[in-house]
Amino acid sequence: MLRPDELGPDDMKRWRELGAGAEVPQNPFLDPGFTRAVGRFRAGTRVAVLQEDGTPVGYFPFERGTFGRGRAVGLGVSDSQGAVLSPQVRLDARRLLRACSLSSWEFDNLAEGQHAFAPYAAEELAVPVVDLDGGFGHYLEKLRGSAPGFVRQTLAKERRLVRQVGEVRFVYDSHDPAVLRELMRWKSAQYRRTGRRDRFAQEWISGLVHLLARGDDPECRGLLSVLYAGDRPVAAHFGLRSPTVLSWWFPAYDRAYGKFSPGLVLHLRMLEAAAADGVRLVDLGSGPARYKTTLKTRDLWVYEGAVVCPGPGGAAFRLGREPVRAARRFVRGRPALAATAARTLAEAGRLRNRVTSARTGGGRTDRDG
């Protein structure tokens, strides 16, 4: 059992070798670099190293809380979770948890191919992805065939943006901290406006994003892409990438320019630049969004659930978490109810913004999306 900062060069290399031989693409969230970054902010982060005859054959990263309650590393912001194992390794999940002194292990984006944990999944979620193996030109040709109106309208809005605001400029790999702060401000306002919890109000998430943005590890690093109009940033995205996979993470745009759909313009520019940079798969993340349905070439699958061991710790987990998880699954599985819940959250967000505006003397501060 190691803390992430105790992983030496040999472990980092071996972990990545095992990841390269996995059944699914090398998602950066399953890279040791992500676990080490989370470990800087989450004190309970640990890595179980599985060995056979002294040779590492697997790595299981997790976060440990009170009463032995475990969770996937970066739960809530990580888009791919699980153990990285040699193909020959077969695990008993509960036995592994007991060896790690865990009474439970919760996941919300368990990757495909995680055979030890899959039996404990309570829900299967579709993850839209964009395949870029054939290059951007091939992808765009297929997109024009499946969604000609989408491509035509997005390009027309980009031209209007040029005419009415200024020359459009795209930066694929920006290192401007001011733009990253602006993106986080936009995204925070979007969370508040839609009644959702502001992730960037959590110091560990904000710190994690800033840390990954400064990183230069080609196996796992943050990628900030920005769309400018008239030298003003109007849309941006911060994601995480491996050599071949880009994970869509935090996209946002300035709502003052919403009529030009700058976020969609950014998407197309990013896909083109990513393909030229060697990215072969863009993971758009689970969760409903019309643009994801339009852009995707197919779906992968992730799983939500928890491995729970018999005993007091497992019972405490079930009492504390299962009712909430069951309620969320119930709503998510009923489109009409989910739409009502989304409208209720949005109205709560609007009321909260009005109260905040009144307390600060009025004036619109939420210009983002």
General description of the model:
It holds the Pfam family Acetyltransf_6. It comes from Streptomyces ziwulingensis. This protein has helices spanning 9-20, 32-39, 93-99, 136-146, 148-164, 177-193, 203-214, 262-276, 290-295, 312-332, 335-359, and strands spanning 45-52, 55-64, 69-71, 84-85, 104-110, 121-131, 168-174, 221-229, 232-241, 245-253, 281-283, 298-308. The protein has 369 residues and is α+β, with helices and mostly antiparallel strands. It folds into 2 domains: 4-125 and 302-332, Aminopeptidase; 133-279, Gcn5-related N-acetyltransferase (GNAT) (Aminopeptidase), CATH 3.40.630.30. Strands 1, 2, 3, 4, 5, 6, 7, 8, 9, 10, 11 and 12 form a 12-stranded mixed β-sheet that branches. Helix 4 (136-146) packs across helix 5. The protein is globular and about 65 Å long. 40% of the residues are buried.
Brief descriptors of the model:
single chain; 369 residues; alpha+beta; Aminopeptidase; 2 domains; 12-stranded mixed sheet; 11 helices; 12 strands; 24% strand; globular
Short description:
Residues 151-292 form the BioF2-like acetyltransferase domain. With 369 residues, this protein is of the alpha+beta class.
- CATH fold name of the largest domain, please? Aminopeptidase
Largest sheet: 12 strands, mixed
Question: Pairing-aware structural class of the strands and helices?
Answer: alpha+beta
How far do the termini sit from each other? Answer: 42 Å
Query: What's the structural domain tally?
Result: 2
**How many individual β-strands?**
12
β content, as a range? 15-25%
Mean pLDDT: 89
Number of contiguous helices: 11
Give the SSE order as H and E letters: HHEEEEHEEHHEHHEEEHEHEHH
Inertia-based shape: globular
Give the CATH level 1 class of the largest domain.
Answer: Alpha Beta
- Low-confidence blocks of residues: 356-369
Domain BioF2-like acetyltransferase: 151-292
InterPro entries: Acyl_CoA_acyltransferase (IPR016181), BioF2-like_GNAT_dom (IPR038740)
Protein name: BioF2-like acetyltransferase domain-containing protein
